[in-house]
Amino acid sequence: MDLKKILAGTSVAIFLTIAFTSDSQHFSTFAQSLQIAKTAGIAVAPQYDTTHVYVSPQDFDRFVASLIATFGGTTTKQGVFTATPTSSSTMSQLVLTPAGSVSVFGFKTPIPYPFGGERTGYLVTDMDEAVRAAKATGADVLVAAFDDPIGRDAIIQWPGGINTQLYWHTTAPSYAPLQTLPENRIYVSPDRVDAFVRSFLAFSHGSVVSDELQAPGVEIGRPTQTYRRVRIESKFGRLTALVTDGHLPFPYGREMTGYEVLNLTDTLAKAKASGVDVLVPQYKTVERDAVVVQFPGGYIAEIHSVPKK
Length: 309
Fold this sequence. Notes:
Blueprint: H1 3-37, E1 49-54, H2 60-71, E2 74-75, E3 79-81, E4 90-97, E5 100-107, E6 120-123, H3 127-136, E7 140-148, E8 151-158, E9 162-169, E10 183-188, H4 193-204, E11 207-216, E12 226-234, E13 237-243, E14 257-260, H5 264-273, E15 277-284, E16 289-294, E17 300-305
Parallel strand pairs: 1-5, 6-9, 10-13, 14-17
Antiparallel strand pairs: 1-6, 2-4, 3-4, 4-5, 7-8, 8-9, 10-14, 11-12, 12-13, 15-16, 16-17
Protein backbone atom coordinates (compact mmCIF):
# COMPACT_ATOMS: atom_id res chain seq x y z
CA MET A 1 0.00 0.00 0.00
CA ASP A 2 1.17 3.56 -0.80
CA LEU A 3 2.80 5.22 2.26
CA LYS A 4 0.84 8.45 1.68
CA LYS A 5 -2.45 6.51 1.81
CA ILE A 6 -1.40 4.78 5.02
CA LEU A 7 -0.50 8.10 6.62
CA ALA A 8 -3.68 9.73 5.38
CA GLY A 9 -5.78 6.86 6.72
CA THR A 10 -4.03 7.00 10.07
CA SER A 11 -4.54 10.77 10.28
CA VAL A 12 -8.25 10.39 9.56
CA ALA A 13 -8.56 7.68 12.22
CA ILE A 14 -6.75 9.83 14.78
CA PHE A 15 -8.93 12.84 13.88
CA LEU A 16 -12.12 10.81 14.21
CA THR A 17 -10.97 9.39 17.54
CA ILE A 18 -10.19 12.86 18.88
CA ALA A 19 -13.43 14.27 17.51
CA PHE A 20 -15.47 11.43 19.04
CA THR A 21 -13.71 11.82 22.37
CA SER A 22 -14.27 15.57 22.34
CA ASP A 23 -17.92 15.14 21.37
CA SER A 24 -18.38 12.53 24.11
CA GLN A 25 -16.86 14.85 26.70
CA HIS A 26 -18.96 17.74 25.41
CA PHE A 27 -22.08 15.59 25.49
CA SER A 28 -21.30 14.40 29.00
CA THR A 29 -20.81 17.99 30.18
CA PHE A 30 -23.92 19.11 28.33
CA ALA A 31 -25.97 16.27 29.80
CA GLN A 32 -24.71 17.06 33.28
CA SER A 33 -25.56 20.73 32.75
CA LEU A 34 -29.09 19.73 31.83
CA GLN A 35 -29.32 17.67 35.01
CA ILE A 36 -27.96 20.52 37.12
CA ALA A 37 -30.34 23.01 35.54
CA LYS A 38 -33.26 21.04 36.96
CA THR A 39 -31.99 21.59 40.51
CA ALA A 40 -32.32 25.37 40.53
CA GLY A 41 -35.16 25.36 43.04
CA ILE A 42 -33.77 23.06 45.76
CA ALA A 43 -32.26 25.82 47.95
CA VAL A 44 -34.59 27.82 50.20
CA ALA A 45 -32.88 30.71 52.04
CA PRO A 46 -29.82 31.45 54.23
CA GLN A 47 -31.78 31.35 57.52
CA TYR A 48 -32.28 27.62 56.90
CA ASP A 49 -28.52 26.97 56.70
CA THR A 50 -27.93 25.62 60.21
CA THR A 51 -24.57 24.97 61.83
CA HIS A 52 -24.61 21.56 63.53
CA VAL A 53 -23.18 21.66 67.04
CA TYR A 54 -22.73 18.54 69.17
CA VAL A 55 -22.33 19.08 72.92
CA SER A 56 -22.62 16.79 75.94
CA PRO A 57 -26.10 16.68 77.55
CA GLN A 58 -24.79 18.35 80.71
CA ASP A 59 -23.53 21.34 78.66
CA PHE A 60 -26.60 21.58 76.44
CA ASP A 61 -28.66 24.23 78.27
CA ARG A 62 -25.61 26.32 79.16
CA PHE A 63 -24.49 26.38 75.54
CA VAL A 64 -27.91 27.37 74.20
CA ALA A 65 -28.21 30.11 76.83
CA SER A 66 -24.80 31.51 75.86
CA LEU A 67 -25.75 31.65 72.16
CA ILE A 68 -28.92 33.60 72.93
CA ALA A 69 -27.09 35.91 75.33
CA THR A 70 -24.42 36.62 72.72
CA PHE A 71 -26.48 37.03 69.55
CA GLY A 72 -30.10 37.35 70.73
CA GLY A 73 -32.91 35.36 69.14
CA THR A 74 -35.23 32.53 70.07
CA THR A 75 -35.26 28.75 70.38
CA THR A 76 -37.62 25.98 69.42
CA LYS A 77 -38.91 23.59 72.05
CA GLN A 78 -36.24 21.20 73.29
CA GLY A 79 -36.93 17.51 72.76
CA VAL A 80 -35.34 14.07 72.71
CA PHE A 81 -35.42 12.28 69.34
CA THR A 82 -33.94 9.58 67.17
CA ALA A 83 -32.24 11.76 64.56
CA THR A 84 -30.26 9.01 62.79
CA PRO A 85 -31.33 6.05 60.62
CA THR A 86 -30.04 3.64 63.26
CA SER A 87 -30.94 3.38 66.93
CA SER A 88 -29.83 6.44 68.93
CA SER A 89 -31.19 9.13 71.23
CA THR A 90 -30.31 12.81 71.30
CA MET A 91 -31.47 16.03 72.87
CA SER A 92 -32.23 18.46 70.06
CA GLN A 93 -33.05 22.15 69.80
CA LEU A 94 -32.89 24.82 67.11
CA VAL A 95 -31.48 28.20 68.04
CA LEU A 96 -32.60 31.02 65.74
CA THR A 97 -30.41 34.11 66.10
CA PRO A 98 -30.29 37.24 63.89
CA ALA A 99 -26.72 36.23 62.96
CA GLY A 100 -27.42 32.61 61.99
CA SER A 101 -29.24 29.40 62.89
CA VAL A 102 -27.74 26.58 64.96
CA SER A 103 -28.97 23.00 65.37
CA VAL A 104 -27.82 21.71 68.76
CA PHE A 105 -27.49 18.00 69.54
CA GLY A 106 -26.75 16.39 72.87
CA PHE A 107 -26.54 12.63 72.35
CA LYS A 108 -27.55 10.43 75.25
CA THR A 109 -26.27 7.36 73.37
CA PRO A 110 -23.05 6.82 71.39
CA ILE A 111 -23.19 8.85 68.16
CA PRO A 112 -23.56 6.62 65.07
CA TYR A 113 -21.02 7.17 62.27
CA PRO A 114 -20.71 9.54 60.38
CA PHE A 115 -22.95 11.84 62.43
CA GLY A 116 -21.04 14.52 64.27
CA GLY A 117 -18.75 15.01 61.28
CA GLU A 118 -21.20 17.12 59.25
CA ARG A 119 -20.73 20.84 59.66
CA THR A 120 -24.01 22.25 58.38
CA GLY A 121 -27.56 21.35 57.41
CA TYR A 122 -29.08 22.75 54.21
CA LEU A 123 -32.87 22.82 53.82
CA VAL A 124 -33.91 21.63 50.36
CA THR A 125 -37.27 21.66 48.63
CA ASP A 126 -36.94 18.10 47.29
CA MET A 127 -34.70 15.52 48.97
CA ASP A 128 -34.52 13.04 46.07
CA GLU A 129 -33.66 15.82 43.64
CA ALA A 130 -31.05 17.26 46.01
CA VAL A 131 -29.31 13.90 46.43
CA ARG A 132 -29.36 13.32 42.68
CA ALA A 133 -27.91 16.77 42.06
CA ALA A 134 -25.19 16.27 44.67
CA LYS A 135 -24.10 13.03 43.01
CA ALA A 136 -24.24 14.59 39.53
CA THR A 137 -21.98 17.43 40.61
CA GLY A 138 -19.30 15.23 42.15
CA ALA A 139 -20.37 14.76 45.77
CA ASP A 140 -20.52 11.39 47.52
CA VAL A 141 -23.55 10.21 49.50
CA LEU A 142 -22.32 9.07 52.91
CA VAL A 143 -25.79 8.48 54.40
CA ALA A 144 -28.63 7.73 52.01
CA ALA A 145 -31.89 9.60 52.56
CA PHE A 146 -33.80 8.46 55.63
CA ASP A 147 -36.91 9.51 57.54
CA ASP A 148 -36.72 11.49 60.77
CA PRO A 149 -39.58 12.59 63.07
CA ILE A 150 -40.32 15.71 60.99
CA GLY A 151 -39.04 14.95 57.50
CA ARG A 152 -36.08 13.40 55.69
CA ASP A 153 -32.29 13.74 55.85
CA ALA A 154 -29.13 12.65 54.03
CA ILE A 155 -25.42 13.34 54.46
CA ILE A 156 -23.22 14.11 51.47
CA GLN A 157 -19.48 14.72 51.15
CA TRP A 158 -18.06 17.32 48.78
CA PRO A 159 -14.67 16.90 47.08
CA GLY A 160 -12.08 17.71 49.72
CA GLY A 161 -13.82 15.70 52.44
CA ILE A 162 -16.39 18.29 53.60
CA ASN A 163 -19.58 16.77 55.01
CA THR A 164 -22.99 18.45 54.80
CA GLN A 165 -26.42 17.27 55.92
CA LEU A 166 -29.37 17.90 53.62
CA TYR A 167 -32.78 18.09 55.25
CA TRP A 168 -36.42 18.40 54.19
CA HIS A 169 -39.44 19.00 56.41
CA THR A 170 -42.87 17.46 55.90
CA THR A 171 -44.34 20.82 56.92
CA ALA A 172 -42.26 23.64 55.47
CA PRO A 173 -40.63 25.70 58.25
CA SER A 174 -40.91 29.49 58.39
CA TYR A 175 -38.00 31.41 59.96
CA ALA A 176 -37.47 35.16 59.93
CA PRO A 177 -34.80 36.50 57.55
CA LEU A 178 -31.38 37.02 59.13
CA GLN A 179 -30.08 40.42 60.12
CA THR A 180 -26.59 39.47 58.97
CA LEU A 181 -25.45 36.43 56.98
CA PRO A 182 -22.98 34.00 58.58
CA GLU A 183 -20.26 32.30 56.55
CA ASN A 184 -19.73 28.58 56.39
CA ARG A 185 -15.93 28.33 56.84
CA ILE A 186 -14.43 25.46 54.84
CA TYR A 187 -10.76 24.49 55.16
CA VAL A 188 -9.56 22.67 52.04
CA SER A 189 -6.23 21.72 50.47
CA PRO A 190 -4.77 23.36 47.34
CA ASP A 191 -5.13 20.03 45.53
CA ARG A 192 -8.90 19.79 46.10
CA VAL A 193 -10.15 23.37 46.29
CA ASP A 194 -10.94 23.72 42.58
CA ALA A 195 -12.88 20.44 42.53
CA PHE A 196 -14.76 21.53 45.65
CA VAL A 197 -15.63 24.94 44.21
CA ARG A 198 -16.82 23.47 40.90
CA SER A 199 -18.97 20.90 42.68
CA PHE A 200 -20.49 23.31 45.18
CA LEU A 201 -21.21 25.99 42.58
CA ALA A 202 -22.94 23.47 40.34
CA PHE A 203 -25.04 22.18 43.24
CA SER A 204 -25.93 25.54 44.80
CA HIS A 205 -26.13 27.62 41.61
CA GLY A 206 -24.07 30.16 43.50
CA SER A 207 -21.31 32.47 42.33
CA VAL A 208 -17.75 33.29 43.35
CA VAL A 209 -17.75 36.71 45.00
CA SER A 210 -13.96 36.83 45.31
CA ASP A 211 -10.93 34.59 44.82
CA GLU A 212 -8.06 36.22 46.68
CA LEU A 213 -4.70 34.57 46.05
CA GLN A 214 -2.90 36.63 48.70
CA ALA A 215 -5.36 37.01 51.55
CA PRO A 216 -3.80 38.15 54.85
CA GLY A 217 -2.46 35.19 56.80
CA VAL A 218 -3.56 36.72 60.12
CA GLU A 219 -7.01 35.31 59.23
CA ILE A 220 -5.65 31.79 59.76
CA GLY A 221 -3.13 32.52 62.52
CA ARG A 222 -0.14 33.05 60.21
CA PRO A 223 0.31 36.85 60.22
CA THR A 224 3.60 36.94 58.28
CA GLN A 225 2.23 34.95 55.33
CA THR A 226 -0.59 35.00 52.78
CA TYR A 227 -3.00 32.31 51.61
CA ARG A 228 -5.78 31.76 49.05
CA ARG A 229 -9.36 32.57 50.07
CA VAL A 230 -12.48 31.93 47.96
CA ARG A 231 -15.81 33.52 48.91
CA ILE A 232 -19.05 32.08 47.48
CA GLU A 233 -22.66 33.21 47.81
CA SER A 234 -25.84 31.31 46.94
CA LYS A 235 -29.39 30.84 48.18
CA PHE A 236 -27.87 28.54 50.81
CA GLY A 237 -25.99 31.56 52.20
CA ARG A 238 -22.31 32.47 52.33
CA LEU A 239 -19.38 30.08 52.16
CA THR A 240 -15.68 30.84 52.51
CA ALA A 241 -13.09 28.30 51.37
CA LEU A 242 -9.77 28.78 53.18
CA VAL A 243 -7.05 27.07 51.16
CA THR A 244 -4.13 25.96 53.33
CA ASP A 245 -1.38 23.38 53.70
CA GLY A 246 -2.86 22.37 57.05
CA HIS A 247 -0.07 23.99 59.10
CA LEU A 248 -2.56 25.78 61.32
CA PRO A 249 -2.17 26.92 64.91
CA PHE A 250 -5.05 26.17 67.26
CA PRO A 251 -7.94 27.00 66.99
CA TYR A 252 -7.91 27.65 63.24
CA GLY A 253 -9.62 24.91 61.28
CA ARG A 254 -11.85 24.14 64.28
CA GLU A 255 -14.22 27.05 63.70
CA MET A 256 -17.06 26.04 61.37
CA THR A 257 -18.92 29.33 61.11
CA GLY A 258 -18.10 33.02 61.03
CA TYR A 259 -20.86 35.22 62.47
CA GLU A 260 -21.22 38.80 61.29
CA VAL A 261 -22.46 41.24 63.95
CA LEU A 262 -23.18 44.96 63.81
CA ASN A 263 -21.01 45.86 66.81
CA LEU A 264 -18.18 43.49 67.66
CA THR A 265 -17.27 45.19 70.93
CA ASP A 266 -20.81 44.96 72.30
CA THR A 267 -21.24 41.36 71.11
CA LEU A 268 -17.94 40.31 72.66
CA ALA A 269 -18.92 41.87 76.01
CA LYS A 270 -22.18 39.91 75.98
CA ALA A 271 -20.32 36.73 75.02
CA LYS A 272 -17.81 37.03 77.85
CA ALA A 273 -20.60 37.69 80.36
CA SER A 274 -22.28 34.44 79.29
CA GLY A 275 -19.20 32.25 79.78
CA VAL A 276 -17.61 32.50 76.33
CA ASP A 277 -13.78 32.38 76.19
CA VAL A 278 -11.72 34.41 73.72
CA LEU A 279 -9.23 32.11 71.97
CA VAL A 280 -7.88 34.65 69.45
CA PRO A 281 -7.94 38.30 70.54
CA GLN A 282 -9.54 40.88 68.27
CA TYR A 283 -7.59 41.61 65.09
CA LYS A 284 -8.22 43.86 62.10
CA THR A 285 -7.93 43.42 58.34
CA VAL A 286 -9.14 45.58 55.45
CA GLU A 287 -12.34 43.51 55.28
CA ARG A 288 -13.23 42.99 58.94
CA ASP A 289 -12.53 43.12 62.65
CA ALA A 290 -12.65 39.59 64.08
CA VAL A 291 -12.11 37.33 67.06
CA VAL A 292 -12.27 33.56 67.58
CA VAL A 293 -14.16 32.35 70.64
CA GLN A 294 -15.19 29.15 72.39
CA PHE A 295 -18.69 28.74 73.82
CA PRO A 296 -19.56 26.63 76.87
CA GLY A 297 -19.59 23.02 75.69
CA GLY A 298 -16.62 23.49 73.37
CA TYR A 299 -18.12 25.07 70.22
CA ILE A 300 -15.55 27.30 68.47
CA ALA A 301 -16.64 30.16 66.21
CA GLU A 302 -15.32 33.25 64.49
CA ILE A 303 -17.23 36.49 65.12
CA HIS A 304 -16.65 39.59 63.00
CA SER A 305 -17.95 43.00 62.03
CA VAL A 306 -17.31 44.75 58.72
CA PRO A 307 -16.41 48.42 58.18
CA LYS A 308 -19.29 50.62 57.08
CA LYS A 309 -18.95 51.77 53.50
